[in-house]
Write a structure and sequence with these properties.
Its main location: mitochondrion. The chain is of the alpha/beta class and 286 residues long. The chain is 32% helix and 16% strand. The chain is built from ten helices and eleven strands. Strands 5-4-1-9-10-11 form a six-stranded parallel β-sheet, with helices on both faces. The chain is globular. The protein starts with a helix and ends with a helix. The model has no long low-confidence stretch (mean pLDDT 95). 2'-O-acetyl adenosine-5-diphosphoribose binds next to helix 2.
């Protein structure tokens, strides 16, 4: 049966090379919202509609408030047992590579070795210049708030209350560009989040490295964790694996065994509780 944990354990024990593709559902039980479904609305905007260069060009203050809130939230939560289990798998299995679409830093904070982690969509804590001709970048900036104009995203909240910023009935003051941080190198662009927005290219050197890893030998298992698998190229890795006959193992609240081919597995539930159990033969008890 494709949701048989003992059968999966037998496959895992034999596996020499494992690829994971992770998404927002992995961080859900840490308390971070996903992009689609119930958690996908920010004020009255679809989260995905704010993740574009056009949205930033139109109203950088609004987009910065959205990302400042996400930075603030990510800094305030902890990695969960799913992140810890994947970090332990990396430490125990040199043939494991984890691709994450998440930009929240929780893999790193769980101790995932950097060499076995690729950030497909960048990081909330990297800052870049909005000017495409400028190469300024700053890594791991955890300032919260990033500047006084963005303080509403980091305001303290009393127990049982909601951040005012999140209430669509509370009108936002427009933040002029002069109050947002500017690039210290070219001095013309604005600082922007170091994440990949819709319509932007992923880092091709990173992608080439991932392709090289995939073609370096047979991949025994592709773990697809907490992602709706609708954004490419992330979604393409499982498709590629399926066509190569690799066992695809889905861990998702909505996992559906009816979509499994022979050799695939689907485990429905919270990634934070399922991953430690699924990976136990290699990582031991957490
Ligand atoms: P989505 O919000 O599209 O999907 C989250 C998935 O996680 C859904 O399939 C949920 O069923 C599942 N899920 C929710 N809670 C879970 C839990 N506790 N345990 C396991 N699964 C759970 O998020 P992503 O697939 O990550 O890109 O979205 C992909 C990309 O779209 C994001 O990286 C972002 C977004 O736009 C960019 O911003 C470029």
């Amino acid at each position: 049966m494709s949701s048989d944990i003992a059968a999966f354990h037998a496959v895992l024990r034999r596996a020499k090379r494992i690829l994971a593709v992770c998404g927002a559902g992995l961080s859900a039980s840490s308390g971070l919202p996903t992009f689609r479904g119930a958690g996908g609305l920010w004020r009255n905007y679809e989260s995905t509609s704010l993740a574009t260069p056009q949205a930033f060009a139109r109203d950088p203050g609004l987009v910065w408030l959205f990302y400042s809130y996400r930075r603030h939230m990510a800094l305030g939560v902890s990695p969960n047992d799913g992140h810890l289990a994947l970090a332990k798998l990396a430490a125990s299995q040199p043939g494991f590579l984890c691709l994450t679409q998440n930009v929240d830093n929780l893999h790193e904070r769980a101790g995932h070795p950097e060499g076995q982690l690729r950030h497909l969509h960048g990081s909330l804590f990297d800052l870049k210049c909005s000017n495409a001709r400028c190469d300024w970048i700053e890594h791991n900036n955890q300032a919260d708030p990033l500047c006084p104009a963005l303080a509403p995203a980091s305001a303290p909240v009393q127990a049982g209350q909601k951040l005012r910023l999140l209430d669509p009935a509370h009108k936002l003051d427009h933040i002029p560009e002069s109050e947002l941080p500017h690039c210290p190198k070219c001095r013309t662009g604005l600082k922007r989040p170091g994440v990949v927005w819709f319509g932007e290219q992923l880092d091709h050197r990173m992608l080439a490295g991932v392709d090289a890893w995939i073609h370096d030998g047979p991949v025994d298992i592709v773990l697809v964790v907490g992602t709706s698998s609708v954004v490419y190229p992330a979604a393409g890795y499982a498709e590629l694996a399926r066509s190569a006959g690799t066992s695809v193992v889905t861990v998702n609240l909505d996992a559906d065994t009816s979509e499994c081919r022979q050799g695939d597995f689907a485990f429905a539930g919270d990634a934070a509780s399922l991953l430690p159990e699924l990976l136990e033969p290699v990582i031991g008890k957490l």
